Structures are given as structure tokens and as C-alpha cells.
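Lab channel / #folding
Pinned by the channel admin:
"Please post every new chain as: sequence first, then the C-alpha cells as a reply. Keep commentary short and put observations after the output so the thread stays searchable."

First post following the new format, from NK:
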Amino acid sequence: MKFFLKKFLDLIPTLLGISLICFFIIRLIPGDPVLNLVGERGVDPVRYAEMKHNLGLDLPIIQQFWFFVKNACMGNLGTSIVSNNSVWAEFIERFPATFELGMFSLFFATIIGIPLGIYAALKRNSFFDYFLMGTSLIGYSMPIFWWGLILILLFSVKLGLTPVSGRIELTYDIPVMTGLYLIDTLQSAVVKAEGFAPFWSAIKHLILPAIALGTIPLAVIARMTRSSMLEVLGEDYIRTARAKGMNKTRIVYIHALRNALVPIVTTLALLFGSIITGAILTETIFSWPGIGKWIVQSITSRDYPVIQGGVLIISFIIVMTNIIVDVIYYFLNPKMR
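Reply from TO:
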């Protein structure tokens, strides 16, 4: 019980610290949100002062932070300065796009990374092993914005195989039910006569952003799988199974992989946080209408409530993911108990 209580109590200072840093840093960025709205030329001082008062920006900065924290604790993250919509409503509208991209990226990284890691462990110290580890290091080191642009130039501009931006062709009118286009287009295929064309369009738009976002997790998963498999393959019960003449495939995929999956699953859950943060650059490059692009646009327009609220929600999701992983690992690993 103390373990769970400590984890959830750690959540409060973590989110408070993130809010504090975000709140003060964005106010160090040059620019005035009111001037972005009314324009910098010919500004009426009376109107400027009135708008600043209405937005609460004329209050002392400590008081502004106190009001933000107090309202956030009550579930009110404020109203966007630019759109005049609720920050929470705008987040909910855009989060499905980011979630879909993140899950597809994690799926791409998993189905490729785990088999590569297993094969590298079985071929330890071979050319393939060194090649995979070197390639994974390169993949981990590549900046997302550079890798995304390379993919666009190669597959979209030069080869013309995939779209450059967006989530689906503009010619398709898909009713938004879940916000996840892969699901909504499949439901639409059943209801309408368009067939699966919208679904394939959504897949094509998703491929390049998912590859760009999933490359770093793929490298991490491959290296973690290799390391975990090597550790398990050296255990006594694996050597006993080999001595008994058990089938090699059964030893690797039933006995070894099942026990090696605990740290791999933990890594997968923790990678979700890096995928959410990496989506900020990926969505900007591919014009993906998710929370990453939303926050970048808000920084450009100095939309303080959106930046503060968006960062706080993302931080909460990442911290909660880590707590859930810790709890799962607590039950899976007897040593922690």
C-alpha cells in the first residue's frame, strides 16, 4: 500500500514543477499575445489595456500562476486566446490524431524491433549482430525533423508513393465517430458505398509519419530485446532444455522469449512518453493535425493558456503511464515485493 501511495504522491510535485517551469519559460519568449491579436500597428492603448485586463495578463505573474494552478485543480485549463475555445475541448478534438499516430508508430517499431533483436541475440557476435547494433545506434541518433524530411523527399517527392501531409484525402467525407481515422474509415466502408478507398488513403497518410516517429523506439526495442534474450538464453533452465534435445524453436519462442518479455513490455510502455513528445516535431513536419502541431502553433501565436494546459495534460499522461508501468512491474517482479 505504501508503494502505491508514494507513487501517486510523487505525481503532485512533478506536475506542479512542470507547470511552474512551463508557465515562466513561455513568458520569457519575446512577443505579446495581445499584440498578436490586434496587430502591432496603430494599436489603441485603451483597447489594448482592456484586452489585457480581460485576459488577466495585467495581474502580477505570481498571481497569474496561482489562478492557473487553482483552476487546473478544478479541471479548468482556461480558454484559448486565439480561438476563444476551451483548452480541454481543443485537446480532446486533436488527441485522437496523436494517439493513432503514436500507436501505429509503436506497432511498427514492435513488429520489426522484436524479431530483429531475437535474431541478433541468436547470432551473437556475427556480422548481422554488429550491423544491427550499429544501425540501431544510427537510428536512435537521427533527429526526427531531419529523418522526416528525408522520407518526404524520397517517398513523396521523388517516388510519389505516399502523400506529403494530412490524415486523409480531402475528397473523402468521413463522419468522425472516434477520431481514429483507421476505425472511422472502416465503419464508413460498411455504411457508405465508397468501399475501402478512404481506409487505404488513411493508411498511406499514416505510413511516413509513423516511420519517422517509430524509428527511435524501433532501435530501443531491438537493443532491449537482444539484451534481454541474451540474458535469458544464458540461464540454467535453457541449457537444461537444450541438453534434453528440445526443439530449438520451442526453446527460443516459448521458454526464452516469454521470460524475456517482461523488460521489453516495460520498455514499450515507457516509450509511449517519448512518442508523445516526439510527435510535436513529426506532426509539424507532416502537417498532422494532432496536439503536437497544436502546441507549436500556440507557441507561435503566444497562446499562453493552450501552451500551459497542453503541456500539463501531456505531462500528466506521461507520468501516469510511468506509474502504471511501475505498478505492473511491481506485480510481475517478485523482487520488488
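NK: The domain at 87-336 is CATH 1.10.3720.10 (MetI-like fold).
TO: also worth noting, The chain has one domain: 87-336.
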